[in-house]
Design brief:
It contains 4 helices and no strands. About 5% of the residues are buried. Helix 3 runs antiparallel to helix 4. With about 100 residues, the protein is mostly helical. About 80% of the residues lie in helices and about 0% in strands. InterPro entries: hAT-like_transposase_RNase-H (IPR025525). It comes from Canna indica. It holds the Pfam family hAT-like_RNase-H. This is Zinc finger BED domain-containing protein RICESLEEPER 2-like.
Length: about 100
């Protein structure tokens, strides 16, 4: 990522500017990344591969844990949806008729 390179660079002006930009990005990212992860996961064009790719670029080895947490969130959402749809489709219990 270019910002990380500029932060480590020799030019003090660029390094300071890049550090401030990265701080702002991280502050924003903490707020929005959960929503964007789920949206990207649910989008059939991207799925989990896109998240794995970009998280690997952003966070390196640490990205594994975030991706696994996302997988867990997605599984829980699917399970919760499945349970709600099953319950909704079953409707109220009716006594069986005896002839």
């Amino acid at each position: 990522m270019a910002l990380k390179e500029w932060i480590k660079g020799d030019n003090q002006t660029f390094s300071l500017m890049a550090t401030k930009m990265m701080d702002k990005f991280e502050k924003y990212w903490k707020v929005i990344h959960g929503v964007m992860r789920v949206a990207a996961l649910l989008d059939p064009r991207y799925k989990i591969e896109l998240i794995e790719y970009y998280y690997g670029m952003l966070y390196g080895d640490e990205s594994f844990f975030d991706v696994e947490r996302l997988r867990k969130i997605a599984r829980n959402l699917v399970n919760e949806y499945s349970v709600r749809m099953t319950t909704k489709n079953e409707g109220p219990l009716r006594p069986s008729s005896q002839d």
